Amino acid sequence: MTNHQLVWRPTDGGNVAVVGRARRWLGAALPRLVGRRSRGHLHDDTELLLCELVTNAVVHAGGVTAVRLGLDEETLRVTVCDHVTAPPVTRHAAPDADHGRGLALVEALATRWGVDRAQPATGKCVWLELPTR
């Protein structure tokens, strides 16, 4: 899928502070990867969805093992790998709930998303794709 890829492997991926570090990594990595090809809201959408996937990995899957950004001609793929093989579950949050909307946001903003088994380690990789143009 990708012509270009950047990978980040946090050393303490089980700590909730990894969400902020992932955001900072993205802020430096995304401009290097997409350059001038990006559509207006690509950075904002990518940051929001990356933070949702990283938070899910920390809260529900023992932490983050890797974050990848991949780019081809028209698509940015964001991948977050974790320690648990069970797939994520989309929840239907109550209107006043302060959590439970992460995958609903992914479904709303991403053109595609899915789950692959992490290789060679155990766990899974949740990925999503966003158009760059």
Kindly describe this structure.
A hairpin with a 6-residue loop joins β4 (112-117) and β5 (124-131). The protein has a 5-stranded antiparallel β-sheet with strand order 1-2-3-5-4, covered by helices on one side. The chain is 33% helix and 26% strand. It is α+β, with helices and mostly antiparallel strands and 133 residues long. The radius of gyration is 14 Å and the shape is globular. The protein contains 3 helices and 5 strands.
Helix content, binned percent: 25-40%
| Overall 3D form | globular
Q: Give, in order, the helices and strands.
A: EHHEEHEE
Q: Count of helical segments?
A: 3
**CATH fold title:** Heat Shock Protein 90
Intertermini distance: 17 Å
Mean pLDDT: 89
- Unreliable residue stretches: none
How many domain units? 1
Radius of gyration: 14 Å
The neighbouring-strand order within the major sheet is 1-2-3-5-4
Main sheet makeup: 5 strands, antiparallel
Protein name: Histidine kinase/HSP90-like ATPase domain-containing protein
InterPro entries: Anti-sigma-factor_SerPK, HATPase_C_sf, HATPase_dom
Pfam families: HATPase_c_2
Domain Histidine kinase/HSP90-like ATPase: 20-128
What features would you highlight for this structure?
133 residues; alpha+beta; Heat Shock Protein 90; five-stranded antiparallel sheet; 3 helices; 26% strand; globular; Anti-sigma-factor_SerPK; HATPase_dom; protein serine/threonine kinase activity
